[in-house]
Amino acid sequence: MRVVAWTRARPAHEGNEIAGGAASPLKILLTGGTGSFGQAFVRRVLADRKDCTIRIYSRDELKQYEMARTFGQDPRLRFFIGDVRDRTRLDRAMHGIDLVVHAAALKHVPICEFNPAEAVKTNIQGSQNVIDAAIDAGVRRTVALSTDKAVNPVNLYGATKLCAEKLFVHGNVYAGGRDIRFSCVRYGNVMGSRGSVIPLFRRQAESGVLTITDRAMTRFWLSLEEAVDLVLEAVGEMKGGEIFVPKIPSMRIMDLARAIAPAARIDEVGRRPGEKLHEVLLTAEESRCAIDFGRHYVVTPDVGSEPTSGLAGRTLPEGFVYSSDTNTEWMSIEALRRHVASLVVPVPSPTSRAPAAKNGESIGPGVSPAP
User: Fold this and answer.
1) How confident is the model over 33-80, as pLDDT tens digits?
2) Is residue 208 in some structural domain?
3) Of 27, 107, 149, 161, which one is the catalytic site residue?
4) In this structure, what CATH number is given to the domain that contains residue 118?
5) Is 138 left (phi over 0), alpha (psi -120 to 50) or beta?
6) Does a structural domain hold residue 363?
7) How far apart are CA 329 and CA 110, in angstroms?
8) Which of 25, 78, 162, 344 is the most exposed place for a label (fewest CB within 10 A)?
9) How many angstroms separate the CA atoms of 13 and 83, rounded?
């Protein structure tokens, strides 16, 4: 488990120490902080560091209220109501911040498809606001969360996250000579997060019928703890402009279904528009600028030459592609069953579940809402 080891404090224009010469406590801003990743990240940081302050920046006051109660009104937490679309509010929230973790986004694929302008405002324009505010505030490190859907995107959500990646990589150009760095982490489906197929499969298991869009579908899979590990590794290693890609196992959607409901009937309903059969985390074009860094790959900024990030690692073979269907590491049905059993994921009731999408569109990867 990765610990919170990065200790460089104070924005770049204020130096690294407080009055009297003592190191200042680390101050973190977490956009979209009430989500599944945000809560896991906060739990890790609070457990590892006594001398820290975490500002939770999000739009929903109820989720902030519930999160504050979950963490026992921990005095190290600060809650800011705000939207990443609001640059003025971001400026206020970033005052004195050392590290920004940008997790805020519209993530639901069908909702982004039906509300494209809103997805652009949050995922693209909001990301640019985070970059601009971080530069103006002198924040030393900013890490953005991305997704495998940003690679060769076939839906609007993926396209907006691809744009966000490009913005964060290029943000380093505007930092000038100051110690201000921007990087991204890119990973696959998170087990147990909101929007995961696991709660839906559990509810469908009670009826004896699970609906799947395509039996051949595969996905990358990681836990919330692994996602937090990746972000912390990126913070410690980033030189600026990199995209960090974890080495994680793949799973077959049919294996997940069998792990949760081995006796259930499987109804295949067809893939939704824009849904991939398999996901890719690293393309052949990107692998030319990527480094095998042990536990993860690092895509360095493509400047038309050899990788220049200074990271020590092994270059990848020509034409290397990191895809969920050709991955060398797979989760078995038994491994999936153990992981699912370890999750505390409530089974949604029929009255509280997300509304069914039209035309057979699925709620999560490889699964469609029950009829």
Assistant:
1) 999 999 999 999 999 999 999 999 999 999 999 999 999 999 999 999
2) no
3) 149
4) 3.40.50.720
5) left
6) no
7) 30
8) 344
9) 25
User: Could you tell me if residue 350 is inside a domain?
Assistant: no
d(CA 122, CA 186): 18
Residue type (1 letter), 32: G
Q: Which SS3 state, helix, strand or coil, does residue 26 take?
A: strand
Q: Give CA 315 to chain center in angstroms.
A: 25
Which residues, 6+ apart, have CB-to-CB distance to 121 below 8 Å?
85
CB 264 within 8 A of CB 208: yes
* Total tally of structural domains belonging to the chain: 1
Q: Whose structure tokens read 């975490």?
A: 54
Confirm whether 149 is a catalytic residue: yes
pLDDT tens track for 250-277:
999 999 999 999 999 999 988 877 788 9
The one-letter amino acid at 44: R
Residue 198 Cα to chain centre, angstroms? 18
Contact 272, 217 (CB under 8 A): no
Tokens coding 251:
């799973």
